Amino acid sequence: MSDVFADVGQPAAAKPLSPKRPPTETAGFADVFPYYAGFSFDWAQEQIRKATVESDVVLDPWNGSGTTTLAAQYAARKSVGIDLNPVANLVARFRSLAAATSQCEILKSPFMLTGRGAATDPLDAWFSATTSNRIRDWFEAMDGISTPQTALVAITLFRVVRELTKSFEGSNPTWVKRARSEEERIEVSPDELDKIILFEQGKLIERLADAPSIDMQPKLLTATANDIPMRNSSVDLVITSPPYLTRIDYAVAYARELAVLGVDLSKDRTLRSQLMGTTLIRSGPNVSEKRLGPTAKALLSSISGHTSKASSGYYLKQAQQYLYDLSCGLTEISRVVKPSGRLLLVVQDSYYKDIHVALGDICIDELTSRGWQLEHRKPFPVKRILTSLNSSARAYQKGTVCENVMTFVKQAES
Fold first, then answer.
1. Which stretch of DSSP H or E encloses residue 196?
2. Chain center to CA of 297
3. pLDDT value at position 144?
């Protein structure tokens, strides 16, 4: 494997946060573009400072919007963040650049390009052709500008598109509807859209003025946790929270932002099928139950034997696929972490119908079999879960659901 730090120098000292600015939910630019689930920036920074020294490397193989890598940046630690979702990677890049760039220029309104004729745009799922064209003008204007400015404009477009399409959001925050007719598509004049985008850029630049100016930059890679592009025993600490077995389709949840990037999920299912937790069933290899621990095997047996429709078919396959991805990810983590290295894992239990999905116990089984020792586990009861939003799911009796914060130590090879 290549050394992703081949071109990285020694970490620069991070400037401490001002004591006049106590941590809030906005810490680490978490409010710039909220990403579903995850843990807090302040918690991650505290754990990194306690568990590592300056020469250590921190990894998050399910990096999402970059909380782990940003926390490592503030703590002056080298870090690598991996995610297959390009939307997540752009958000993570903006947050990391925001911590290092106190100055960034607004991108002025681009020239209005000629209409695309009969060609369609993924944004047409929510916007009129005129509005889609103008959003595309802004996106294409990012070509050739500076990296900080590119990240600024991309996040601005994400924020504007999400705000304009709020009417397409369902009660479940991960469901995004599409326009069913031309009348439902949103029409915003090019001049008005330009004003909104310029205003949003200005708001983000105001936030950049408070940046602590940290030189250390993370490595952010578009890759999968199933195949981490790092050398064996090259990581000291992993802090991560993998997607849970709650049937959240992250590609659909971020379909509008992916459309800004030119990805049309209705025509190309490649990304959607590859993301962990997808509701699409992939063709190809699946997990062998012989490799799984007892808790995972018991879960698959319970799902297969459930009397509800498709439990022994589609839903069993989806659970098997999820466990395959989890198994591959934990195997890769075990490969890249040094002996005596640590893993901080945040996972949430859930329910399939009335079957308890003990994801915390499943992870303990799998990691123990890979040479890890559980050092600490703290469960936190979760009051509101996504299944409570589904009327058919509410018909099944459920117990308490917990989020588990667990610390593992990789045992030295004998």
1. helix 190-208
2. 27
3. 84
Is the pLDDT reported for residue 102 higher than 80?
Answer: no
Q: Quick check: 410 pLDDT over 60? A: yes
Q: Which helix (H) or strand (E) segment is 346 a member of?
A: strand 337-348
d(CA 68, CA 73): 9
Alpha-carbon Rg for the chain in angstroms: 22
Q: Could you tell me which residues come within 8 angstroms of residue 293 by beta carbon, excluding any fewer than 6 positions away?
A: 362, 365, 366, 368, 369
Tens-digit pLDDT profile for residues 158-206: 999 999 999 999 877 678 899 999 999 999 999 999 999 999 999 888 8
User: Are the C-beta atoms of residues 75 and 96 closer than 8 Å to each other?
Assistant: no
Predicted confidence at residue 392, as pLDDT, reads: 56
Per the DSSP assignment, residues forming a β-bridge with 298 are: none
Burial track 212-230 (b if 16+ CB lie within 10 A, e otherwise): bebebbbbbbebbbbebeb
> In this structure, are residues 358 and 391 in contact, taking their beta carbons and an 8 Å threshold?
no
Q: Tokens 């290549």 — which residue?
A: 2
With a CB cutoff of 8 Å and minimum separation 6, the contacts of 287 are 320, 321, 323, 324, 327
For residues 354 and 294, what is the distance between their CA atoms, to the nearest angstrom? 19
**Nearest CA-CA partner of 63 in 18, 96, 32, 31:** 96
First to last CA, the chain: 24
> Contact 110/138 with Cβ under 8 angstroms?
yes
Helix (H) or strand (E) segment spanning residue 258: helix 255-260
